[in-house]
Amino acid sequence: MNEANYGFISKAERDAQLANLKTLDNKKQISDYLLANPTATQYNLSISGGSERMTNYLSLMHQSNQSNFKETDSKKYLINFRNNSSITKWLDLTLGANYLYNKDNNNGVTLTDLNSWSPYDMLKNPDGSYTNIHRYYTPILDRDVPTASFPYSDWTYNPILEIANRKLSVDQSQARFQGALNFKLLNGLTAELRGQYEYGNYNTRELYNENSFEVRKTVNESTTWDSSVDPNVFIANLPLGGILKQKRVRTDLYNVRGQLRYNRELGMDHELDALAGMEFQSLVGQTFENPPAYGYNEETLAVGTFPNGPGGPNSPIYDYMGQEITFPYLNTFGYTTQRLFSAYGNAAYTYKQKYVLSGSYRFDASNLITDNPRYRYAPFFSIGGMWHAHKEGFMENVDWVDRLSARITYGKLGNYDPSTTFRPLITPSQSPDLYINGLIASFASYGNPTLRWEQTSNWDLGVDFSLFDHKLFGKLDLYKKNGTDLLAELSIPSIHGTFMQKLNNAAMVNKGVEVELGTSQNLSSDLQWTGNLNFSYNKNEITDLFVVNYNAFQMPLGGTAAYVKGYDANTAWRWQYSGIENNQPTKIGPEGQPFPLSAFPEGDPLTYLKNMGTMVAPYTLGFMNSFKYKDFNFSFIVTGKFGHVFQTLGFNYPPNWVSRVLPNAKLTEVNSGDPSKIVPLPLNKDDSEYYIWEYFTSSMDYLIQSASHVRLQEVNLSYTFPSSISNKIGLNNVLLYAQGNNLFSFYSNKAGEDPEYPMGSLRLMPSYTFGLKFDF
């Protein structure tokens, strides 16, 4: 189209090319060459044995996963060992170890790649040769750039070839070693000393050989070429050959806990169970990242050098567009520590097996909290009671009540948020700045000198019951949680260098109810039924928050910037579309008046942004049923979430700064829609503010719909072979099973979209598992 508009091709040539493109459809080629059927294969082996004083358990697992994309897969290996030994009458020893190795190959394309291609971007020509999926505006490249004179004359891209010329992998290994000594000191008194060490290695390796587009693009674009000075001079600033990128992350975790426990019946009517202990945990994380190795040869392990240096103010180099560039050449390192300390104790006293009184108290401390002891060490506690009413004398003749217990608890818990720090932190640059020829730094955190634990006070009232000879059982819980000292983005005087900072000054209340009902019945001599129904409701509200001025730009984006006192923490704030005025789309602004779509209104955003509801389901439902008929078992699980909203897919109005944006599936909706109800395409050819439409059109009220949905989450069918059959082949407990997951979903929104797997991402697909288990 552009070539015809600028007169480089005729209208007839343009129409012929468009007619040809209309005949092309790359769906089959994408399916044949790039996509795969996702599968998972798992093998398990467990071995156990021992004696009267020792038991051993060993399990091995191997799993292979094939993703939706060819050349993207993973393999996992897991070894687990556990030993329990009775050393003496008063000492028990427990040892455990496990090792996990996981290797991911990520050579295949991604969903982002697929979304960036047009339907007519074929992967192969009719003669079987590879096509060029344009990464450049090819006509300009052909007319104005002497591509053959660059280090690599091939500027084409084809995903099939790209996959074949790169090796992208992630190796992960993790080992854990555990040990515990249990001392039986006195009657009812035991002591335990437990330790754990865990380490993990996470290695990322990306290798592109010189036939890959990634290498050719990087080397060619970094070449100095100034057509206005001498169009025949080309200076290569990177060596020929492959490019290798590597990064390694290591974590070390230490955990030590010592604990005393006393559990004993005191006479006929009293029972005491108490424990006290201390625990220390240290987590150290280290990152090591190498600069890209240019000119890398996988066979000889040779690495190239910068022909003209890495660039910089003393020796600047320029790319093929005339822009000054520098190449990373320094190693980067990272080091983090997290240390936690806890001292705790709890006790429960039972009287006549009817009345239970319990309580707990603990001190927690963390190095992520301020170094001021007033805030670093935080005490937390809980207290509760339970009454087993079914054991009372007046309930002896109530035969239909098997169990009836009432309980109440109150406590205060803590949480620390590592997203901010108690001191200002800076992040230094990894290489000298181009202009000052020195290292610069930016603020990673402005600091919160009174950073402290977030605290939550909990009230819980509950009833547990079992009726009609256990044919109906369940529990009911009512709770209220008051969160204080919560971290949130709050307004501060700009004299501090920023007008917003995370501080412990927010408060929130959560109220809810949880109900669980179950049944277990013998419908006949061969048929048994077990069913469970779980229901929960939760409502939250921000009860304290200081914000001088809400930010209309940030509120529709969510997060703590969207917190408003008196509202749900997950409220969706959206712009209200108000139709066309003066040939321009508008939205509701101050005083309810239409305001230009591309302009930011002043004043309080709460007066013109619309509360569309909460984006987290207040109601959740789970329903499980299991039927056993002779040696067959059949079960299914249904889940549901209700009362919330989500944002449906809207049209991707292309911004000015992106050269190529493919219209998504909502183009027809925009073209045929009512401009008074949905933002149309620009009505003016020279709209100078169209570049900002993308932000507003993606945050419109008409995109919000109900997120309520129901899923058939899981279906299981199994058959247990009779022992008369399995014993003949030397096996025990032979079980043949089949399982289906995510088989069906029902959505209440008119768009027919899955609220948890939005359009443009990989949708939730049904999966099927078949297996065989046996003992020998």
TrEMBL record:
Domain TonB-dependent receptor-like beta-barrel: 117-579
Pfam families: TonB_dep_Rec_b-barrel
One cellular component (GO) term of this entry: cell outer membrane
Domain of life: Bacteria
UniProt-listed InterPro entries: Beta-barrel_TonB, Beta-barrel_TonB_sf
Primary location recorded for the protein, binned into one broad class: membrane
Keyword entries, A-Z: Cell outer membrane, Membrane
Cellular localization per UniProt: Cell outer membrane
Keyword DNA repair listed: no
Name of protein: TonB-dependent receptor-like beta-barrel domain-containing protein
Native organism: Sphingobacterium cellulitidis
